[in-house]
Amino acid sequence: MTRYIILAEYIWLAEQVTGVAAAVLAKSGRIDLADSALHAPAASFGGQEVHRRS
After folding, report:
1. How many degrees, rounded to 5, is the angle at CA 17 between CA 12 and CA 18?
2. pLDDT given at position 41
3. Up-side HSE of residue 6: CA atoms within 13 Å toward CB?
4. Burial letters for 26-48: b for 16+ Cβ neighbours within 10 Å, e otherwise?
5. Confidence class for position 52, pLDDT limits 50, 70, 90
6. CA-CA distance, 51 to 54, in Å (whole number)?
7. Dihedral angle at the C-alpha atoms of 39, 41, 44, 48, nearest 10 degrees?
8. pLDDT tens column, 5-34
């Protein structure tokens, strides 16, 4: 079973990599785009995964 990271984990990781505080990153005007991108691989249609792993 694949485990996808959630937005909070993404923000934590971004903080570790960039050195920018998580509170600052969370208030970003584009955080919704990151959240959308994190959900895309888990998308399904009719019970079938849309994005398949090779």
Report:
1. 100
2. 84
3. 1
4. eeeeeeeeeeeeeeeeeeeeeee
5. low
6. 10
7. -160
8. 999 999 999 999 999 999 999 999 999 999
Neighbouring-strand partners of residue 44: 49
- How far apart CA 30 and CA 49 sit, in angstroms, is 26
Do residues 44 and 50 touch, judged by C-beta distance below 8 A? yes
- Which of 13, 5, 9, 11 is CA-nearest to residue 40? 5
Amino acid at residue number 6? I
Q: What's the whole-model pTM score?
A: 0.76
State which amino acid sits at residue 36. S
Measured in degrees and rounded to the nearest 5, phi and psi for residue 25 equal -60, -40
